[in-house]
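hi! just following up on the protien thing from before. the input was this:
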Amino acid sequence: MVGVAGLVRRHAALWRRCDGTRGPRLQRLYTVREQSGREAHAERFLHQMESTLSRRVPGPHRETEILRALRIFAPAALDWNRAQVHLFLEGGFPKLARGLAEEARRFDPRLSTADVYQASRNLWTAGALQILLGRPAELTPALFAYSLLYPYTDNHLDDPTASLAAKRAFNRNLRRRLCGLPVAPANHREHKVCALVDRIESQYDRARYPGLYRSLLAIQKAQEESLGLRREARLAPAELLRGVVAKGGASVLADGYLAAGRLTPEQEEFSFGWGVLLQFGDDLQDVLEDLAGGTATLFSESAGRQPLDHLTNRVFEFGDAVFARLRGFRAPGTGPVKQFIRNNAATLLITAAGAAHRLHTRSYIQALERHSPFRFAFVREHRDHFFGPAGLIGRLVAAME
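and the predicted 3d structure came back as:
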């Protein structure tokens, strides 16, 4: 393992080299007519899935209906090619979603649909890494455990009603358990978190896979430090950047290690960089909420002082540098997943900028919108319905059991 501190330094330096003077290198353009057609497909998909979920359809038949609709929707509205449809809808990914939903319910009946969906978001990243690393996309004990850890940990650390002392005590116990030390769980949450770490240990021996456990400690350390990412703390720019890079990068680095047990230095670099890019995308998408909630990110600290055009350009440029490292994954048959990762990241950043349209110049947003399969107003209108805490996508994932 190269070392997370070194990865943080290198990716912070990479960010500083991205000057934002050129616009995003996006090739696909959509006319308003094409966007309207894709929006119509999305509306039909939405109504069809709502109907499927409202009827008492047996589990296997319900999954068949969901996948049949997705096979029509994904190429028509999202431009998936045949290889991507096969990989994500006919390969191992439906089995991943189904396995996660079934196992999560057995593990803890108290988990909500939103919790299961939150866990599944990590599982897609981990599954893609499994394929890049030449492995089948499958729900291993370690990936199930890591995916489910963060509904328990994130939701507690983000809970405004929980005291700072309670959050710190929780973090101390989790850190001890990740170090392999015994912990006496103080409540239901801690009991479940310790049980999840047990599952990781059941698959990966600590002595044989030290890099894996260092990566888990790195994401935990970043989580602990993220409690200090508050706007009132007035962090120096370099300190803020380090915190954001560490949190995002360590998260996906751990996915890579849990997918394969070991990574080459080049695979570490990509996994960490991909995590940083996803963190930048989430922070851009949530900049308005972060401004209201007092969370410090690169975007919330810049918003109001100047338009975010330049900063958003830097994120696209950072992504180009990260995806150049995909050459480090040489397993056969990885072309479709590599292209999907690139396309999905572009869509994430485009729609994130659209969500923060008021903080960009109008001309920048208009130019970026031409690269989106949906108009930004449509995305904003339907975002919560599709992706909110009780949104359609989460309910579809939870229904796959």
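Residues 386 and 393 are 6 Å apart (CA to CA).
The first helix runs from residue 4 to 17.
cheers
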